[in-house]
Amino acid sequence: MSNSLIFKLGVVVLLGALGYLYYALVGCQSGTCPISSNPYISTGYGAVIGALIGFGILPGKKRNQSNKE
C-alpha cells in the first residue's frame, strides 16, 4: 500500500470515529434527530465525509499525459 492510500483511509477512519464521538457526546435523547440518534448512522456520515475529503479533495499523484499525435 502506498503512503497516500494509507493516509486517505486514515482520514476516513478518523472522521468515522469523530461521527461516533458526536453520537456519544452530543447525541439526541428523544430519538427524533436522524443523524445523532443512531451510532451507525452518525459513524457512517462521518466516514462518508472522510471519504469525500480523503479521496475527492486531497490531491493525488498526477499522471503524465503526453499528446502524441
Topology:
Blueprint: H1 3-25, H2 39-57
Helix pairs in contact: 1-2
| Helix coverage percent | 55-70%
End-to-end Cα distance, whole Å, is 35 Å
Radius of gyration equals: 17 Å
Oligomer: single chain
Tally of individual helices: 2
- Give the overall silhouette: elongated
Mean pLDDT: 81
The structure class reads mainly alpha
> What amount of the residues lies in strands?
under 5%
SS elements, strand count: 0
Encode the helix/strand succession as letters.
HH
Low-confidence stretches: none
Main β sheet profile? none
Q: Describe it for me?
A:
With 69 residues, this protein is mainly α. It has a domain of 48 residues. It is 61% helix and 0% strand. It is built from 2 helices and no strands.
Concise structural overview:
This protein is mainly α. It has 2 helices and no strands.
Which descriptors would you attach to this protein?
mainly alpha; 2 helices; elongated
